């Protein structure tokens, strides 16, 4: 299993967790915390602590996801950033070079010449 594949699996897993944590929250202050007693302030079951946990876990997962996405570019570039490789790291990408000494007559594609 390549390094890029490992990063890809981790990114998908963290993204799934982030979606789950965001969907549990309610933008009006309800969500999971309202299921355990609702209301405001510190009540039985630690409703305020549940909201704090969901908020901190959202930020943590978002930061981890961003870091994984940025780190996943290292294996694509080959670790050194010297020569770009294709997505699967098989071989370096070849770019065609133009001949600086060629004239328009050399590159005439009409077949008429000079």
TrEMBL record:
Low complexity bias spans: 101-114
Residue segments, region Disordered: 89-114
Keyword Cell membrane: yes
Subcellular location(s) per record: Cell membrane
GO molecular function: protein-transporting ATPase activity
Family of the protein in this entry: Belongs to the SecG family.
UniProt protein name: Protein-export membrane protein SecG
Gene field: secG
